[in-house]
Amino acid sequence: MSATRFSESVSGSIRDGVLVVIIDNAPVNATSAHVRQGLVKALDHASAVGTVIGVVITGAGRTFVGGADIREFGKPPVEPTLPEVMQRIENCSKPVVASVNGAALGGGCEIALACHGRVAGEAASFGLPEVKLGIVPGAGGTQRLPRLIGTVAAIDLIGSGRTVRPDEAIKLGLVDGVAADHLAAAVGLVHQLAGQSQRRTGLLDVPIAELAAVEAASKKVLSRSRGQSAPAEAVRLVRLASERTFRDGLAEERATFLRLRDSNEAAALRHVFFAERQAGKVDKLEGIAPRRIETVGIVGTGLMGAGIAVAALTAGYRVVGIEQTEDAATKGRERIAGILDKAVQSGRLTATVRDGCLARLAVAANIGELAAADLVIEAVFDDLAVKTELFQRLDGIVRPDAILATNTSYLNPDEIAAATAHPGRVVGLHFFSPANIMRLVEVVDCKATAPDVLASALAFARQLGKLPVVSGVTEGFIGNRIFSAYRREAEFMVEDGAAPEEVDAALEAYGFPMGIFTVYDMAGLEIAWARRKRQAATRDPNARYVEIADKLCEAGRFGRKTGKGWYDYASGEKAVDPEVTALIAAARAAKDISPRRFTVDEIVDRLLRAMAGEGAALLTEGIAARSSDIDLVMINGYGFPEHKGGPMFAAETHKDITP
Ligand code: T1G
């Protein structure tokens, strides 16, 4: 039978007496207005035509339904609303079954929940990721899911926003079946359900869940929510499902959804969502194909090199690690195997995947082994002479079309490239430690980097599951430039009267996992000290310079590993040290500064302004392509709270900066 069109994105055809409705709204079948209108029309049609025994809903392409159209948020609502569509599905006189071909997320998962039955294809996934957007499910998810799979499991899924695959979905009772031919199975399920009274999730009694388990699940969500409000609201709503009627629960869910949708937190997280999809897109690379990369050479298998190796191995690459001696090569291999073992112990990797990784790994003391590499990443000591000499040697070893990447944090990769025979193949890949965990990679587009080399570096980073952000060449690239401005401002405030612990407390209250002085102590103070000493001769003598960190280093206070830094760790806990307080007081006195008080707001405002100001300079200099890239760098590399949207977003919208 020919297809009937219900709207520009919804059509249906009859299969075995069942109306099979297809949602086709590229790219992710979001529930835009015409999708909602089409679904209602399709349900009307199925109800009206006597020969139709029921309905199957499925999606075109790789996605079932990716949820509400996030771009419609903030625009006036268009009827029918998504909750209305859900009610129409649930109350349909004939059985409606979801045939879930791909991702059923947010409103897409809610459509499946409102159906009378659900069949998953092998590529299906289910999730209510709304909390990641600073909102809660707004079309019945918080009320239908606990009624289907229980309160504890629903708190976990909705509170974390995580996605489940078919094997877990069936265990949870989220789906009735999993089938390669999900459409045929769904049509079969409609036949089974036809003529019976339909299970309407909304009308079911809720079994009283075990209170202790509900408490534990709630606590777990709250402990991970880092100052965001959506996860707590989600937990509250799910728990309402066992306390109130379905109708009351839905009303409370809708009210909460609308309130959160208009919050700063949601605006910030939407910004981050689109920023991530923008990142790494470079206009000049349009139509340029990346080079093929199968074997990755990594020179230096210390902490950073080993982390990069693990990231490459788990993404399926062959890895050749290089060390200077046999002994160091053995240790490097052990370090890499150790990280993989830990991942198996914590359940992030299966033993089979680890064994596959180890089979693709070689660590050698002979640099000649790199002849086979398509890409070589150096992760050796951050010294210009060392890196230049290494790249010159590599010129004679690797194929002319192999790519050479430097993982330098502070050196000028243009200088490294200029010393090689083919500067066009040199690019920066600035990983963050631990490289197998941290998502951010700054991909440094050097003066001579060839477009297909840049495209290859971006494709490689994406293949590793990383978030690549392109940076031009500047001291410290995007992240460390902004971090330096942030640090400078924090030290100015300390010199002017704020205590380090006040600055840290203000940052932690804002949402940073750790304040800046605590971060310093974790990382160690000596590397930055050495750099300041190197730069002393070229420093602008008229620029303000705070000596306090130097004085700490001179006193042997290099941070946590020496038991003392900005704080004291003798008791095993971080403690304010009167010695540091005295040292700061002396530094102020030496400059005739009479200390003043800073409020929490002032501390945060000044630090945000410092970061945003440096970010603006990076945009003017053309180092960063877009301000949202800067936000991603600070969120993913430096602990800037995601739900504040990054320093540029916070500055642009004046949401966190009082003028
Ligand atoms: N709305 C608008 N655009 C979207 C979108 C959405 N929901 N999801 C993706 N896009 C765009 C995206 O910006 C990109 O655009 C393109 O689609 C491809 O995306 C009432 C309130 C579905 C797993 O949070 O997780 O439902 O950059 O690169 O890797 O309770 O997209 O090409 O211009 O990510 O194949 C909840 C978000 C909404 C799902 C596909 N839903 N999306 O991954 O493609 S709130 C989500 C995803 C809600 C209800 C509530 C993924 C995907 P461009 P992509 P992908």
TrEMBL record:
Identify the enzyme class. oxidoreductase
EC number of this enzyme: 1.1.1.35
| Recorded catalytic activity of this chain's protein | a (3S)-3-hydroxyacyl-CoA + NAD(+) = a 3-oxoacyl-CoA + NADH + H(+)
One Pfam family, short name: 3HCDH
One example of the protein's molecular function in GO is: (3S)-3-hydroxyacyl-CoA dehydrogenase (NAD+) activity
The protein's UniProt keywords, in alphabetical order, are: Fatty acid metabolism, Isomerase, Lipid degradation, Lipid metabolism, Lyase, Multifunctional enzyme, NAD, Oxidoreductase, Peroxisome
Localization, UniProt: Peroxisome
Matching CDD domains: crotonase-like (cd06558)
> 3-hydroxyacyl-CoA dehydrogenase C-terminal domain: which residues?
476-569
Q: Where is the signal peptide?
A: none
KW Endoplasmic reticulum (keyword) present: no
The residue ranges of the 3-hydroxyacyl-CoA dehydrogenase NAD binding domain are 295-471
The pathway entry for this protein reads as: Lipid metabolism; fatty acid beta-oxidation
Where does it mainly reside?
A: other
Spell out the protein name for this chain: 3-hydroxyacyl-CoA dehydrogenase
* Organism the protein comes from: Aminobacter ciceronei
From the broadest rank down, the organism's phylogenetic lineage runs:
Bacteria, Pseudomonadati, Pseudomonadota, Alphaproteobacteria, Hyphomicrobiales
